[in-house]
Design a protein that fits this description.
The complex is a heterodimer.
Chain A: E1 3-12, E2 15-25, E3 30-34, H1 41-48, E4 56-61, E5 64-65, H2 70-76, E6 77-80, H3 92-102, H4 107-120, H5 136-148, E7 154-158, H6 166-180, E8 184-189, H7 192-198, E9 201-206, E10 209-214, H8 216-224, E11 228-234, H9 239-246, E12 250-255, E13 262-267, H10 274-284, E14 287-293, H11 298-306
Parallel strand pairs in A: 3-8, 3-9, 6-7, 7-8
Antiparallel strand pairs in A: 1-2, 1-4, 4-5, 9-10, 11-13, 11-14, 12-13
Helix pairs in contact in A: 3-4, 4-5
Chain B: H1 2-17, H2 20-38, H3 43-46, H4 52-70, H5 72-80, H6 82-87, H7 93-113, H8 116-125, H9 130-156, H10 161-185, H11 188-197, H12 199-207, H13 213-234
Helix pairs in contact in B: 1-7, 2-4, 2-7, 4-9, 4-10, 5-9, 7-9, 7-13, 9-10, 9-12, 9-13, 10-11, 12-13
The chains are: A alpha/beta, B mainly alpha.
Chain lengths: 307, 241
């Protein structure tokens, strides 16, 4: 199920929480919303799930608009809100049954779906406990289970891994990846590694606008643009620097920390210097001790775009 | 209708799980039983096979109990954030509000059903006016429905249960007694308007066994207005600022 967002704007008073954003999510894509606190991630999700209506613009799920077909849209979405609110006085099984009934799951299938969810989210041991007796990690799983109980085509998960321990985080990520094969998933996070690990595509949102859109790799490349290498050459003398700079593909060279023979080489846009450097060393009988490409970390991309 | 019933079922179950239901029913029966049969102007003193005494007590005890039942309804959902969960499911705000209303009304109905032995006893003691008793029960039920509707509205305007409780008592006291007093104070049109607004006027006429469409319209409008306001408060997140 594809999601099309057109010129979406949401104002709280004078403040624009979401400012005229447009994007499309294709069926089967796992998209991560990334952005600093208050960037408009949750607001966008609340509008997709029909909790809030947009000030202007529209959201369409396979042509169904949130503006006038909200009931239909809501049936197709599974939503895990931020902070994972739950009816804490209910037992897990009762709560899942309640959700399934409200979402209009066929009576004959409800028990089967509940069993499936309990299995999928690893709730087996705890299933008759009340939700307020559960640890945070288990509550989060209940939150996921209730979002998926009616087998929705779209999953909207607002910070699905907050408050989980590292093992649980890995499990939830696995689960999301598994789900992402057949469903359209949008999740938000401000943890970069998480988005990188789970999402096919990343949207970076800042101050209500989309500032970057693409896979983790494309984002890195976009931000970096040029190849960056650290090299260490031994056996040369003063002319190493000059010869390197003379290479046609090299744009800039820095000597590292005053150490002899350590350089950082930046290539010209869309040029690669690894081979040329290697050949240069061979010609001059220098020893190439090290040559490492520097990857821009997603953190750097994020900071660059949102500061 | 299905969806409404799902909400109602959950709320009722939660009344009984959390003991609220048992506590309220016990206190209601205790109070009304004590004053009807044992204390003060009790049935034996009146020496009539009628439940007027009980209706008089229930008129006041329901007035205090109902805000205690309704205060949780939407205030707690807003506080805990579960309203977001509920609103994003395939259910409309109207259905949510109506489901909660029905749950409260059913709880009151259960409490009233528990007083049926009073009716049986009284009709054994002498020739009871069945019309008046049926009318009285209907009156209590409609009165409760009215206060529940007001209570749910009060619960929808705040996320604090205590505030919801106090506001619904405040609004309730106008319908319970103040409009009545004002009705006596003012003459002419004002007087009759206030008189019409008072719950007591309509409750009294019902508990005499007269089922008049004016009374039904009165209670009906309070219920519908309360629910409509609650529904629009629920969707206030979409009001453009």
């Amino acid at each position: 199920m594809s999601i099309v967002i057109e010129d979406l704007t949401k104002k709280y008073g004078e403040q624009k929480a979401v400012n005229n954003i447009s994007f499309e999510v294709k069926t089967g894509e796992v998209v991560g919303f990334l952005g600093p606190n208050g960037a408009g991630k949750s607001t966008t999700m609340k509008m997709i799930t029909c909790y809030m209506s947009p000030t202007s613009g529209d959201i369409k799920l396979d042509g169904l608009s949130v503006l006038d077909q909200a009931e239909e849209v809501k049936k197709k979405i599974g939503y895990l809100p931020e902070n994972n609110p739950l009816y804490t006085d209910m037992a897990i099984v009762d709560y899942l049954r309640f959700t399934a009934e409200i979402q209009g799951v066929e009576k004959s299938q409800i028990s089967g779906r509940i069993a499936e969810m309990i299995d999928m989210c690893g709730l087996g041991v705890e299933k008759h406990k009340k939700i307020n007796e559960l640890s945070k990690g288990y509550r989060q799983r209940v939150g996921l289970a209730q979002a998926m109980i009616h087998n929705p085509e779209v999953l909207i998960l607002d910070e699905p891994t907050t408050g989980l321990d590292p093992n649980q985080i890995i499990e939830i990520r696995k689960l999301i990846k598994k789900l992402g094969k057949e469903k359209t998933v949008i999740l938000s996070s401000h943890i970069l590694s998480e988005v990188e690990a789970t999402c096919d595509r990343i949207l970076i949102i800042n101050k209500g606008r989309i500032v970057a859109d693409g896979s983790a790799d494309t984002l890195r490349q976009q931000s970096q643009g040029q190849e960056l290498l650290t090299i260490q050459i031994e056996g040369g003398n003063g002319d190493v620097y000059k010869s390197l700079l003379a290479l046609p593909s090299v744009e800039k060279i820095e000597q590292l920390d005053g150490k002899d023979g350590h350089y950082r080489v930046q290539s010209k846009p869309e040029n690669f210097s690894r081979k040329a450097i290697f050949d240069l060393c061979v010609q001059n009988k220098w020893y190439l001790m090290e040559m490492t490409g520097i990857e821009t970390r997603l953190e750097d991309v994020f900071r660059e775009l949102t500061n | 209708m299905d969806k409404i019933w799902i909400i109602t079922k959950r709320e009722l179950a939660s009344f009984f799980d959390s003991l609220i239901a048992y506590v309220l029913i016990t206190i209601f029966l205790g109070l009304s039983g004590f004053f009807t049969w044992l204390f003060g102007n009790n049935i034996f003193l009146m020496n009539q096979a009628s439940l007027q005494v009980f209706f008089g007590i229930a008129f006041w005890s329901l007035f205090f109990f109902i805000p205690a039942i309704t205060m949780r309804m939407l205030a707690e959902e807003t506080r805990a954030g579960t309203i977001e969960l509920l609103s994003t499911k395939a259910i409309s705000d109207v259905q949510i509000v109506t489901g909660k209303f029905l749950a409260c009304l059913l709880l009151v109905l259960i409490a009233l059903v528990c007083t049926l032995p009073y009716y049986i006893t009284v009709s054994q003691l002498g020739s009871a006016d069945h019309g008046a008793i049926v009318g009285g029960y209907l009156g209590l039920l409609l009165l409760s429905a009215g206060y529940i509707s007001i209570g749910i509205f009060c619960s929808s305007i705040t996320s604090n249960q205590i505030v919801a409780f106090l506001i619904s008592l405040l609004i309730g006291i106008f319908f319970q007694i103040l409009f009545d007093v004002l009705g006596y104070t003012f003459r002419g049109t004002f007087g009759s308007v206030f008189n019409y607004l008072s719950m007591r006027t309509h409750f009294d006429s019902l508990s005499r066994g007269v089922i008049d469409s004016r009374d039904l319209v009165y209670f009906g409008s309070i219920i519908v207005a309360g629910l409509a306001f609650s529904q629009s408060m629920l969707s206030r997140r979409n009001w453009s600022a």
